[in-house]
Amino acid sequence: MCDQELQAEVNAHRKHLNRVLEKGRSLEKSSQYDGEEVQQRNTHLATEWEELEAACDKRAIHLNRAITREQILLDCAELETRLSETLALVSTDEYGKNDLATQSLIKQHQVL
After folding, report:
1. Mean pLDDT in order along the chain per 10 residues (112 residues)
2. Which UniProt keywords apply (predicted)?
3. In angstroms, rounded to a whole number, what is the distance separating the alpha carbons of residues 44 and 35?
4. How many angstroms separate the CA atoms of 49 and 45, rounded?
5. Do residues 10 and 52 make contact, with C-beta atoms less than 8 angstroms apart?
6. Distance from the CA of 67 to the CA of which of 18, 34, 49, 61 falls in 20 to 30 A?
7. For the chain, how many structural domains are there in total?
8. Could you tell me the CA-to-CA distances from 41 to 12, 31, 34 in Å, in that order?
């Protein structure tokens, strides 16, 4: 499951959680039920939810860092290739065997 799908699912359940917590607060105030137990369960549920959201946030941060790292590695590989090609071009002792070859080499050096 990708991060956006996970976040969407968590957000979708947030509304349901709020309804459950509201019902729990109502039950807590009513004399029919053991208010202390309901309050403990409500508190536990709210705490667990906060931990889930914190874990989701932490996961998103790690994924963003991984994406940034991979992009940097790709950029480095591209630069290494470019530098390698450039070094090969400027390190050659070839001056061209004829006028056309010499002009081609000059154009390659001007591009650099």
Report:
1. 82 92 87 79 94 93 95 97 87 77 80 71
2. Actin-binding, Repeat
3. 14
4. 6
5. yes
6. 49
7. 1
8. 21, 17, 11
